[in-house]
Amino acid sequence: MPRGAFGVVTSDAQKRDQRYAASAATAQAEFPDRPDARILNKSIPLFFITKNNNGFWVVREAGGKVGGIFLFKRSALRFATRNSTPLGCARMFLTEHFELDVRNQGNRLIAALDAFMRRMARLRPKSIAVSGNGSRRQEDHGSPAIDVRATSLSLVESQTPRDRTTY
Known about the structure:
Blueprint: H1 12-26, E1 46-51, E2 57-61, E3 67-70, H2 73-82, E4 90-93, H3 108-123, E5 127-130, E6 135-139, E7 146-149
């Protein structure tokens, strides 16, 4: 088995989780701070619930102890409740999109699908700008720009009655 930086044996799953957390942390903003103790007592666990850029549900404890990624909102809520029993928890739904920045303890299949979607997103063209003359200009990193003529299809009837052909 491979050894880590300090001679600690690490499994492939642990390495994958570390790479996932590192790649997600570089592409996301910081989660908000916990509300003031006058608003929410510190003894009550707080879970942030939001969606990531691919539309999957992300749950993260405010202290960063646990977190997970899920396909369904119901699964995300169940994860927060299960990780705060028997006391219960406060849940804060966020409007911004955030990426999970801790080890995924949720759905492994959805985490793998999310990582695949992020890789595929890097292969897509970054932007398409439409110019005033109807042409689209597609720009990519380091490659020459490609001009693509915008076409619109419409039904046109010919002028003569005997050729009433629709194009």
